[in-house]
Write a structure and sequence with these properties.
This protein is α+β, with helices and mostly antiparallel strands and 213 residues long. It contains four helices and eight strands. It comes from Streptomyces violaceorubidus.
Amino acid sequence: MIASPDRTPLSREFFDRPVLEVAPDLLGRILVRTTPDGPIALRLTEVEAYDGQNDPGSHAYRGRTPRNDVMFGPPGHVYVYFTYGMWFCMNLVCGPEDRASAVLLRAGEVIEGAELARTRRLSARNDKELAKGPARLATALGVDRALNGTDACTAEDTPLRVLTGAPVPGDQVRNGPRTGVAGDGGVHPWRYWVADDPTVSPYRAHVPRKRRS
């Protein structure tokens, strides 16, 4: 079980900051997903920052749409999108309201509810792979678009919360190019991860993929 100090939810103010401040500060924080089947908790070990209309790699680069509406605030809410016709990915919205920015949750260490996560990630060869990559993380936690817009900054018993956990010291944080981002957005070193953590996903440059029909 998670120690009681770690169960304090992160405040709205934590997320109401520039995305490049929030992203590395999310490492070591605890994400708790509550489902009818039981809770799953993981320690965040890898994230990516997306800076809205300043960032060609962001879903909000060209403005507000029904798909990305949650990215425009308020901060501390969950933005879930569907990609390649197969996978869900989860982000945490940050920055001031009406200025879209979000942090993609790329990987984590399952610290509670591994038995339940294994039933959702049957292809994982070991527990280090349960949430190793953004689609795997969402799958392990049972995340889909029904969670889009969920407030993660509440002490109430909600489907998803972000807790204080134990922030990672700066000398253990690494950063580099974002995985799979094409074009001008691919040059930003806005992926952050915990050094030498086995749950961090490998870096892959962008490779065009065909959508499933």
